[in-house]
Amino acid sequence: MSRILFTRRSFSALAAACVAAPALRAQPKVEKAKVSIAVGGKAAFYYLPLTISEQLGYFKAEGLDVEISDFAGGSRALQAVVGGSADIVSGAYEHTINLQSKNQMFQAFVLQGRAPQIAMGVSTKAMPGYKSVPELRGKKIGVSAPGSSTNMVANLVLSRAGVKASEVSYIGVGTSAGALAALRSGQIDAMSNTDPVMTMLEQKGEVRIISDTRTLKGTNDVFGGPMPAACLYAPLEFVQKHPNTCQALTNAIVHGLKWLQTAGPSDIIKTVPETYLLGDRALYLASFNKVREAIALDGLLPEEGARTALKALASFEPSVKPDKIDLGKTYTNEFARRAKDRFKA
């Protein structure tokens, strides 16, 4: 009798192992376990999914040892990858289009933000009587870093009012305490930046917002359609050579996006580093509530969003010719689809 019982138990254990086996096989060994990610302004809500996935150990759970290097803005992070000191950029999707126009092939493979979350505001101290965009001619405008997505949004706002980028001075101020200090000390007259910085300045009456993409509606008003924002992107060659690594990175980010869908403000406060709060917990949470809907849900980049980004760039960037850009090569949803199914995002 005991022998039969033992056999049944063995059979049950074997059956359970067989059921579990496909799940294990579904996660093949990563080609590159140690991965370096360059990000431009990690403390911004723009990159919150990256921070959440890091802080909650989701990269480690996928068998990755991820090192994240923080730079002043997205353009600086991109330079790190182009220069070979990092593997992957956590940055704005539109850089992949810009790069392709210069014959450099990069591909986005998981979306973190479905709206740019960038607001442009004029200093109420430097320009108290401000009425319209042309008044910014000859002024100093703060951006996270020249060439970054904050710079791109400023270019778009100016070009629509007939102001050329060459008619203003752009100054890199980062995305945290340095940006606040630059505006408050009068080093700049206006600023295009992300949250929590812009909400902090707005709530204290230090800036007057003139363009806002922190909500889906605001993004649609500015760009005329959905505008994909932060994503993980890398040289096309890297993506092709390291599909399992890209899948693992995507899994970690989508896991973070899934967590963010139900996380409350107190969960966010407990998870992000204290320095991200910029000394004002209440304003940090007010900023989070403002940009929450801009966070991606499942890591998928919408085709319509890619077209919006191309149209926006081509409107003020002469080197970007829409008929010469192959949008299909600038992003892939292959990894995000698998991660979405796995995490039911």
UniProtKB/TrEMBL annotation:
Gene3D superfamilies, per database record: Periplasmic binding protein-like II (3.40.190.10)
Residue span, SsuA/THI5-like domain: 46-260
Coiled coil (residue ranges): none
Cellular localization per UniProt: Periplasm
Pfam family, one: NMT1
Domain of life: Bacteria
Keywords: Signal
GO CC terms of this entry: periplasmic space
GO biological process: alkanesulfonate transmembrane transport
Homology family: Belongs to the bacterial solute-binding protein SsuA/TauA family.
Stated name of the protein: PhnD/SsuA/transferrin family substrate-binding protein
